[in-house]
Amino acid sequence: MSTHDKYSHLPLYAKGPLKCALKGQALLDSPLFNKGSAFTKEEREKFGLNGMLPAAVHTLDQQVERAYQQYSERSTALGKNTFLNSLKDQNLTLFFALLWQHVGEMYPIIYTPTEGEAIEQYSRLFRRPDGCFLNIDEHTSRSSIASILKQFGGEGDIDYIVLTDGEEILGIGDQGVGGIGISVAKLVLMTLCAGVWPNRTLPIVLDCGTDNKSLLNDAAYLGLRHPRVRSSRYNSFIDDVVQSIKSTFPTAILHFEDFGLGNARRLLEIYSEQLPCFNDDIQGTGAVTMAAIHAACQVSNVELKDARVLIFGAGTAGTGVADQFVDALLTEGLEVGEARGGVWLVDKSGLLTTFSEEPTEAQKPYLRKSVEWEGKDTTALEKLISEIKPHILIGCSTSPGAFTEKAVREMAKHTPHPIILPLSNPTRLIEAKPEDILKWTDFKALVATGGPFDPIPIPNSSDDDGNLNENDERKYVVAECNNATIFPAIGLSLILTRSKLLTPPLLATAVKALSLEAPCVKQNDKKAALLPDITDVRDISVKVAVKVIRKIVGEGLARVDDIPEDEEELEGWVRGQMWDVSTYRDLEAVDAERVKEALEEGGEAAGSGGCLGIAG
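The chain above was modelled as a monomer; its predicted structure follows.
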């Protein structure tokens, strides 16, 4: 018996046959079950496919090769994105197999920066709906929302939901109903990076109107044509949606995505004690950034508790990073006030102090005493750096070029290996290009970015003793602070344990687990990347999930019994429940009428984790 076979009784066991009640055209129309030209002769006979496919039987690898050729013929990034979305609607296994074989190349196509362009063009590119559309004008009651949600599955059918209202998308702002694209893209990453079953996820967009005038004036726009609804009506709508999700899918994880600055943190704080929920813009960005900081501090011999952090950009992402930094210090025994004392926030008006006008609730804990800054320049970044002498400079501002040569050189004056993380996305909005940061610091800086950058040649590199390596052909690998290296793993751990909540200690556990996988830490090399590469993400997700699951069990949050205690066995338990991106599963034919009866009775015969295909 293999390691995986011992877990074949689990509802999410992902290695055995899929029960399938579909036949003929209905089967070919199902992205989950369709294999296209890979259906064997026996399957074609069993499932009524004779005469519906060309004679040749191809392997998945052959299909991937053909699909990659078709993909490569698209001349633009947006064209490639559209091709991949079309493929996803036809054959999920082929879609994910293609992505995984070319993940480094295709990640920027399926997510940032290309997905941002696809979302901007959503109404013009629209072909078919993908996900759940809840609009505030048709909201009449909580029960009406629940009845809509029930069209997407029963109580145990949905594991992970990505919910957005489309107000603040990927640095491109209010995109209204087009925000569904970010929910879909995030769920693709959940499957690609952590093996979450794609048919057990649900993308939702809340259409509350839009303040984007170009959309309101666009005849092709598919959303509500009025300004955004806010205040009590908006809050009531959100609450009814969340409570309907809780009642309809009681074990599902709720992932908030790209809500506006005024709502993102507020909603997370309201609902984080009611159900396991997550905000990637706040917690995901903060967690992956903290993992890079952990790794950088370790190789540069800076104690985290002694580090000073200057965060340029104090919106959702910036305050999220600040909160994760404080949470990390709390786990090391510092008091809250002491932990916050190492963080300085800067927004458009300069350093945030008690004199700052209308700070957000998220910013208030980090306001510096204005009396301490009387007569000092609180607007020029290089002056702030000179005064604060931070070890770490983080950019979340979407202000291109904000990290000037003067500012970066000032960083290098007071710390031998400044940690500089320009994180703004898309890359055209980055605070400084990594090659410039490295050049201005004589390649002494430790750099990670929010988007992808090519490795940078190291000219006549030297070791820490100043000895030149004139023949060194090494390159500095710029780590991408890619949320996909952490949020899918966190989601997977919550799903597999049916965790009651997502708490700060669970996030801190994920951060530390990810930082230990950083090449710079594993190789003890300052010139190596501060974070693992996206091409290693599935193995990384398993390692992170194992650590988080053990914490969930230790915190008494798990609602699943018999979770293995041994770490190696737990890894097998996790892998056995991850959806495979590299092979077709066998299909087991079942009778549609028997399945319908079982579903109506709620019996175990419905099994296979809600994967049955039933011809309607």
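Residues 280-299 form the longest helix (20 residues).
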